[in-house]
Amino acid sequence: MLLQIFGFLTLAQLLIEGNSNCTEVRDLGYQCSDGVEEKRFYYHTKYKICSPFTYKGCGGNGNNFKSADECKETCSSVNKSNITMELAIKCNGTYSPNIKIDIQKCSPTSEDSCSSGFSCKNDICCPNKDYICSMEWDSGKEYNELKHIGRYAFKKEFGHCVRFSYFRNEGNLNNFLTYKDCMDFCK
């Protein structure tokens, strides 16, 4: 088990380091005599998508791609944010990469170091099953023409999972890829 976790962490670190250009801020570059303004794409780290911008022709940085496809191919592994990856590893769960959540550090020796609905595991406050499964489903925020996808959320009052439209951006942890994943986690 430890060897699998180590292998996963090593692979994740390589993917993140290999795509460090994707996490640079957008840089329009500057106008110069040799350059031509043109449409390019950059990876938007907050929204986890490739967005167009007008490149000035010279300078800039590595977060500058000639096509949306090149941007997506290069930056696809960045979709696993460090925060949700840390939660997934330390809390023994899986979390959607675009969910906004703050990590709170804790002390396993202090019972009240985590908020209600969370427990201390591996020095971070992890949301417990009841907390996650009692959240109202959240379709997230529509941004830059992201297509919605079907996801599942547990509805405590019904005692089972329901399908909802998710816009692939933000939302909350009551968000599962399949009905089975949802039921297995929340029942």
From TrEMBL:
Residues 22-75, 133-186 form the BPTI/Kunitz inhibitor domain. Gene3D superfamilies: Pancreatic trypsin inhibitor Kunitz domain (4.10.410.10). InterPro entries: Cuticle_assoc_divergent, Kunitz_BPTI, Kunitz_BPTI_sf, Prtase_inh_Kunz-CS. PROSITE patterns: BPTI_KUNITZ_1, BPTI_KUNITZ_2. GO terms for molecular function: serine-type endopeptidase inhibitor activity. It comes from the Eukaryota. Residues 1-20 form the signal peptide. Keywords: Signal. This is BPTI/Kunitz inhibitor domain-containing protein. It comes from Strongyloides stercoralis.
